[in-house]
Amino acid sequence: MGSAYLLRSGVVSAVYFYSLGDDFGDFSNFASYPIKLDGRVWPTSEHYFQAQKFKDKKLRECVRKAKSPGEAARLGRSRKNPLRRDWDSARLNVMRKAVRAKFQQHQELAALLLSTGDAKLVEHTENDDFWGDGGDGSGKNWLGRILMEIRGELAEAG
Q: Domains in the chain and their CATH numbers?
């Protein structure tokens, strides 16, 4: 599914995104927007997020140097190496930190995010019911929720 908009009374009430080719595909963590965090430059927010799953600095650096966000995701999802013990409780704040950096460090992205107004932002995918909507709206949509939170911060900062 490409970008879709849910209209109510002529106003966009929801924006669905997932693929990089979508109108709002830049909201994806796979979008090629480098971020500076923790004294390093990360090729994408996906690289940063996946690397933070590991306590071992060499593993984090290996993920940071991955040639693509897809490769970074594969490395981060591999269970050949143990996840840090607090990952389940830390992952939302790690994602929030990465997404905040992405939109604060790239003004064109901040403008795109702000252009969505008060619309609900939904990562629409069957592949993920935690970060996305599970494809049928039953998922938690945490990426969309974090994007809406960052949008509010950017709007307040003016």
A: 1-33+106-158 (1.10.357.40), 35-91 (no CATH)
